[in-house]
Amino acid sequence: MGNTDGSESRERSDATTDDSVTPDLRADVLPPRKVFWDPVHGQISLHPVSVAVIDTPEFQRLRHIRQLGHVAYLYPGASNSRFEHSLGTAHLARVLGAHLRDCQPELKLSDKELLCLELAGLCHDLGHGPFSHFWEHFYRRGARDRGLKPRWTHEAMSCKILAHLIDVNGLDRTFSAWEAKWPGQGLTADDVKFVQGLILGDTNGVEPSRWFLFQVVNNRDSGLDVDKWDYYLRDCHAVGLACGFQFQRLVGSARVVEHEGFTHIAFRDKELNNVYEMFRMRSTLHNNVYHHQMISIFEAMICDSLQLADEKVASANGGGRLRLWWTTHEAGQPDASPQQVEAFVALTDAWVELSVRRADAKQQPEVLRAQQLWRALETRSRKPCPLYRFLGSVPKSDDGGVGSSEETLREAIMAALPEDVKPKVEDLVVDLVNIHWGCGEDDPVKKVLFFRKAEPDRALSAEQLRVQSSVLPSRFQDARWNVLLRAPGKPGLDEHVERCLKALQLQE
């Protein structure tokens, strides 16, 4: 599956006599599609442009970014990486695009558009930080503590890294030569911009007849896209959770229809329940896996650890002080330099962890505490540093009450506790968890279009299909504050906090 070690790809020109090493790309030879075996999708094949991107250090980095962050500390099988998810998303993007082309020749979907869909699926997660979505939490918290506006997002970073890897690996020349000799099989600068738009789901300036292409990888209209299909399937496979929706049926029933002047991907009316199951799967994964109370504890501890160590210890590669937050923030600037992008690309799960755990903690109590937090995660020991404790949760409110913000809830809890059990205010962690079906409080299926067999070109909403309300939840969003405790706590604290949280829930 491409390189097994991303560090080798820059050295291959010196080792082409070794049959085990793929020779450098040639402008006058278009390699065949490459076959991969995937545990979720089985045999898949990718275009030589995609394979050339895979065989770069920037893409190989995704092998070292866990898809589920710290979930493996709870679910041992959850060690899958962004690498295989990216290959799976590329495969599904091409499969869906090819189905639409075969079923609707009038769309005139070109080889180049199918290639760009595949490449967008492949590269949509290049910009993830260490431990995947956890890094977004770490970055936002750092921005808040520094009083700065967040600039970095993993989607925008993916676009930057794609352009960067094409440039630094000299792929632009090869892709241009392939395009000149085999039209539709290479890549131009305009094609790269198109792929970046597909990654972002940015339809600004897009022709109405091509709007549907931007619903394949990152569907901003409904959230129903191949990225979700792959990670729902892959994450369920990793943690041993049954996946209730069938993406093959969605692909097989997909069709492009015109609605309000724009083209959209719609599905057969009989797939309505399957679509609901897909969005329900999102809620199930967030409840049972991503926001399991133990995962909330683990992520709070690691976030504290990185905050304590950042800018205080030497980096694992000996390149000066650790600058995790600033490296991310600088790479997220619109005018980030190639060096700043390279610095971000160097951040992987293992590199970050080693930088903290192998640091010299002498005369640095904050660094020692950071290392103890990592150790506690693995040993589950109470000494010298116990795991944080989950005390309960309170619904989030938007009416200005105690549940409307982290600060007001923390103040209310502290005020309600007796002095003899009251913890230090800094030991109380209040963390927002927002679980929904993909569109906040709204039903996401209302934004999906359907069609009937007798009228394949007439777009219909779920409401027009008259869904029975009994199969739907009363709410599509559950926003709550999880309350954790960093320190062991005094005797009787748990009981007082439990009564306090119940009282606050009644107030809400």
CATH class of the largest domain, named Mainly Alpha
Report the C-alpha radius of gyration, rounded.
25 Å
Number of strands: 9
Percent helix: 40-55%
Q: From the 3D coordinates, which CATH architecture of the largest domain would you assign?
A: Orthogonal Bundle
Which word captures the global form?
globular
Structural class designation: alpha+beta
Poorly predicted tracts of residues: 1-23
Instruction: Domain count, please report it.
Output: 3
CATH superfamily of the largest domain: Hypothetical protein af1432
CATH topology value of the largest domain: Hypothetical protein af1432
The overall pLDDT average reads 91
Sheet bearing the most strands, described?
4 strands, mixed
Task: Count every helix, treating DSSP H or I runs of 4 or more residues as helices.
Answer: 18
Distance between the termini: 53 Å
Helix/strand order, N-terminal first? EEHHHHHHHHHHEEHHHHHHEHEEEEH
For the largest beta sheet, what order do the strands appear in spatially? 3-4-7-8
GO cellular component, one term: nucleus
Family: Belongs to the SAMHD1 family.
GO molecular function: dGTPase activity
Pfam families: HD
